[in-house]
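Deviations from the work plan: none for this task. Representative record:
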Amino acid sequence: MKKNNSILLSTPYILWMVAFTLIPLGVVGYYALTDPDTGVFTWSNIRELGTYLPVFGQSIMYSLVSALICLILGYPVAYYIAHRGAVMQKILYMLVMLPMCMSFLLRTLAWVGLLQDTGIINNLLAAVGLPRLQLIRTPAAVVLGMVYNYLPYMILPLYSTIVKIDHRLIEAAEDLGCTPAETFRKVTLPLSMPGILSGLTMVFVPAVSTFYISQKLGGADTVLIGDVIERLYKQGNNANLGAALSLLLMILVFVCTGIMNRLGGDEEAVVV
Amino acid sequence: MKKANKIITIAIFIFLYIPMLVLIVGSFNEGKSLARFDGFTFEQYAELFRDPDLLALLGNSLIISILASLIATVFGTFSCVGINSLKPRMRNTVMSLTNIPMTNPDIVTGISLSLLFVFVGTKMLGQRNSLTFWTLLIAHITFDLPYVILNVMPKLQQMDRSLVDAAMDLGCTPIESFFKVTIHEIMPGIVAGAIMAFTMSLDDFVISYFVTGMDFVTLPVEIYSYTKKPIPPKIYAMFTLLFLLILVLMITMNLLQLKSEKKKARG
């Protein structure tokens, strides 16, 4: 009797999630397969997707590069935090999380202030007599914006994995004659694999779908798929084509996270 | 090696905080540009509190994020109890449903909800304006719920089940035992989930941008509309105040966690 009652508590939640996550995805599919004016079934939105493959490719490139840079920069930080005392760990963890909670738009605008032609960095360069640089509206600026915004998403899962690594394993490796570099390569790194994979996913997914960073920090040649979808949906009034692109983006992300999960699963199996 | 790690970590923290420092310094700047400091002033803060429109937008953001996180917290906590008593297979299905908004890109979640509301509102109900305060609230509750579930669920599973059995043996009804025993045990998870949901709602731009209508706009959506005209520096003053608010919230959350850990260590 009591068991049945508490099971009933999950019913509203299941209904809510079906109504507001599954059904909306179905509606996206419906729009992707209908004509904007007549509402009749059509393949034309799907056929048009081919035109956008270069933009997809560009988005994937930018977000992969950003995710890898995040990994290279984030790993030492996560490693450092994981090897502090308990209180210091909490403080540093909070300091990594704090920027994630602050307005992502304003923080990106601050980078515009730093990088623009008459921005802080160029003013400093000019003050010491160096020539001004073209920093904004470059591919590098877009990557910088992505790395800056999503680096915490890399550090946090890395930290959670590294902090759980059994210290005795590292001591054992050292006792058995491994140099610190060998210990790292043979013990610490393989054991951090789940964190690395989830960090890569957590950076890749928002980066591949962003539209604000590329609009603010990029130029005419750094249009990403998020920009195209946003323009079609909000300004171009072609919600149907926008829906078709969203569908493709979603499939892309699900395939990527699926691959990551599969790799993560195998990795864990190898370790155990 | 260890020293290099420390230097990289310090450098990364500087990198993470410089843009925020730029904004905070900008809030005390007499001039309008972030790039040049023209002199120290509190004028931007005075401007902020003299601007009813901007305060109304901040109010809108706070209303949505407080309401959505409260509803999601209560709803999510009870749902966890329900999900926890499901059979493992069904529970896994429900948890993958929970993961959909977490793994889907925000832009897809935003567009899918927006299309749903437009489809139901315009095509099925014949409304002229189908994106309202209520649809925005539904969207926020939807993306807040997973944060609550993912924070409460582990606490519920770690909890000693014999505590509930003991309460029931002593004559508590299931509802009484929930309010007298379970809720205290899972409180840290509830608080962490609520705070995460609140900050996610407060800062959400992408989903709100697609789901928002004409009559109810939140602060991030308004900030996005400053693309052509320059941002008024009073926005930086607001950023600084929100920064302090979030800082206080986070410190509270950490102190609560420390306290509950200490209690556990003692008990």
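Chain A touches chain B through 86 residues (CB under 8 Å).
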